[in-house]
C-alpha cells in the first residue's frame, strides 16, 4: 500500500467502523427501546420517560458520527500533507518569508499548519457546536458569540502550538537521534505548567469565573471538606449559561490553583442537596489525587508517543519518499502529529476505562460523604435530562468513548450502596 492509498483508506476504515458501531445492530434503537422495555435497563425505565430515551439517543448518535467525521478529517489531512509534497511546499513558503532566520521560518510554518487545520475543521465545528446544539435546544449562544469563542480558541492554539512546535523542531536539529528524552522532559514540564495555570490564565479567557457566593452552599461545602479531611476552600461558579443550558462541574488546577468549579446552570437547576452531591463528587477527585494520577498516566503516554514517532520519522526519512530534507525537517511535523493521533485513538479505550474508574471512585466518595442516595439519583437524573445523555448506549460505544459510567450504572451503584447501608446493623 502506498502512502497516498493509506491516506484515503485509513479514514475510510474509521468511518466504516463507526457506522458498524452506532448502527441499530450495534446499539438498542431508541424507538424500539422505548417501546420494548425488556431491552432497557430497569433504572432507566424507573426514572425516565420514553421521550427522554429517544431524544437522548438521537442527540448522542449524531455526536458519535461527528466524532468519527472529525477524526477522519484530521487523519486524512495529516496523511495527505505528508504523503504529497504539500507539507514541504508549506515549509518552502515559510522559508521564503524568512530566508535568513530558520527559527522564524519554522514558527511561520507551524502557524500556517494551525490556520489550515482551524479552517478545515471550522464547518464541522460550526455544525456540531452551533447548528446542532440549537436544534436540540441546548445552546444559548448567538452566532457572533460562537465565532468569538472559536477565534479565541484558534488564537490560544497558535499561542501554544507555535512555541511548543518550534521547540520540538529545535530539539530535532540540536539532538538528532537523541531528542526523545529532552522532548519528554520539556513536554512533561509544559503539561504541569499548563494544568497549573489553566484555571487562572486560560479558563478566564472564555468565561467569568468567580468565588461561589450562595452562603448556604458555601457552608455545606466547608462542612463536606472538613468531613473529607481536605482543605477545600476554592469553590467557584462559572457563567456557563452564556453558552448552554447543560449543567456540569469540574475539578481543576494544581497546588494553589486547585479548585472546584460549578456551572451556574447546575446551581440554578438543582436543589441544595443535589449541588452538595456534585461538590462531594468533585471532592472525591480531589481526595484521590486524580489530577496527579492523570498527569502521571499522560507522561507515560507521552513517552510511548515520542518513542514511536521518532521511529516513524526515522523510517520516513530513510524511505526518501516523503519530501523530507532530513531528520530535522520541520515539514515532518504532520507525520509526528499523525503518529500522535493514531496512537491516541488506539489508546482511547484504555484512557476512557481509567477515566471511568476515577469517576466511579468519585461517585463512591460522594455517597460516603453525604450518605444521600436519593439526592445522588435525583442529581444524576436531572443532569442526564438537561445534558441529553444517551440512556441506552451500546457497550462498544461505552468502551470506546465514555469518560463516565453510563447513567444506568451510576444509578444502580447508588441503589446498591443504599441497600448495603440498610443491611449493616
Ligand atoms: Zn467526575
User: Order of SSEs, N→C?
Assistant: HHHHHHHHEHEEEHHHHHHH
Shape: globular
Poorly predicted ranges: 23-28
The amount of beta strand, in percent, is: under 5%
**Cα-atom Rg, whole angstroms?**
24 Å
Number of strands: 4
What distance separates the N and C termini?
Answer: 67 Å
Q: Level of helix content?
A: over 70%
Which ligands, by name, code or SMILES, are bound? zinc ion
Report mean pLDDT, rounded to a whole number.
Answer: 90
The main sheet comes to: 4 strands, mixed
Query: What oligomeric state do the depicted chains represent?
Result: single chain
Structural class: mainly alpha
Strand order of the largest sheet: 1-2-4-3
Q: What count of structural domains?
A: 1
Number of helices: 16
Amino acid at each position: 500500500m502506498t502512502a497516498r492509498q493509506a491516506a484515503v483508506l485509513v479514514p475510510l476504515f474509521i468511518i466504516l467502523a463507526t457506522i458498524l458501531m452506532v448502527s441499530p445492530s450495534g446499539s438498542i434503537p431508541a424507538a424500539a427501546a422505548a417501546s420494548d422495555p425488556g431491552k432497557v435497563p430497569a433504572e432507566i425505565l424507573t426514572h425516565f420517560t420514553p421521550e427522554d430515551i429517544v431524544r437522548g439517543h438521537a442527540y448522542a448518535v449524531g455526536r458519535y458520527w461527528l466524532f468519527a467525521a472529525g477524526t477522519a478529517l484530521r487523519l486524512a489531512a495529516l496523511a495527505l500533507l505528508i504523503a504529497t509534497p504539500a507539507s514541504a511546499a508549506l515549509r518552502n513558503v515559510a522559508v521564503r518569508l524568512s530566508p535568513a532566520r530558520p527559527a522564524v521560518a519554522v514558527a511561520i510554518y507551524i502557524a500556517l499548519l494551525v490556520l489550515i487545520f482551524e479552517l478545515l475543521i471550522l464547518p464541522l465545528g460550526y455544525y456540531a457546536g452551533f447548528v446542532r446544539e440549537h436544534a436540540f435546544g441546548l445552546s444559548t449562544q448567538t452566532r457572533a458569540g460562537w465565532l468569538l469563542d472559536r477565534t479565541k480558541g484558534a488564537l490560544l492554539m497558535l499561542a501554544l502550538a507555535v512555541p511548543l512546535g518550534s521547540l520540538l523542531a529545535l530539539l530535532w536539529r540540536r539532538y538528532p537521534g537523541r531528542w526523545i528524552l529532552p522532548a519528554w522532559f520539556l513536554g512533561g514540564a509544559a503539561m504541569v505548567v499548563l494544568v497549573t495555570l489553566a484555571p487562572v490564565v486560560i479558563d478566564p479567557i472564555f468565561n467569568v469565573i468567580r468565588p461561589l457566593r450562595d452562603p448556604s452552599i458555601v457552608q455545606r461545602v466547608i462542612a463536606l471538606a472538613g468531613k473529607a479531611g481536605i482543605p477545600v476552600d476554592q469553590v467557584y461558579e462559572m457563567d456557563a449559561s452564556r453558552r448552554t443550558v447543560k449543567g456540569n462541574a469540574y475539578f481543576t488546577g494544581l497546588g494553589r490553583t486547585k479548585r472546584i468549579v460549578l456551572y451556574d446552570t447546575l446551581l440554578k437547576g438543582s436543589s441544595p442537596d443535589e449541588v452538595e452531591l456534585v461538590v462531594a463528587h468533585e471532592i472525591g477527585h480531589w481526595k484521590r489525587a486524580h489530577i496527579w494520577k492523570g498527569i502521571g498516566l499522560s507522561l507515560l503516554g507521552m513517552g510511548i508517543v515520542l518513542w514511536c514517532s521518532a521511529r516513524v520519522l526515522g523510517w520516513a526519512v530513510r524511505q526518501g519518499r516523503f519530501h523530507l530534507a532530513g531528520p530535522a525537517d520541520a515539514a515532518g511535523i504532520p507525520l509526528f502529529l499523525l503518529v500522535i493521533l493514531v496512537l491516541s485513538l488506539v489508546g482511547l479505550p484504555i484512557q476512557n476505562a481509567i477515566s471511568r474508574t476515577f469517576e466511579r471512585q468519585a461517585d463512591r466518595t460522594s455517597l460516603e460523604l453525604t450518605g444521600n442516595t436519593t439526592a445522588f439519583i435525583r442529581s444524576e437524573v436531572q443532569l442526564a435530562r438537561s445534558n441529553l445523555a444517551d440512556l441506552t448506549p451500546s457497550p462498544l460505544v461505552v468502551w470506546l468513548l465514555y469518560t463516565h459510567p453510563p447513567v444506568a450504572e451510576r444509578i444502580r451503584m447508588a441503589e446498591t450502596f443504599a441497600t448495603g447501608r440498610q443491611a449493616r446493623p
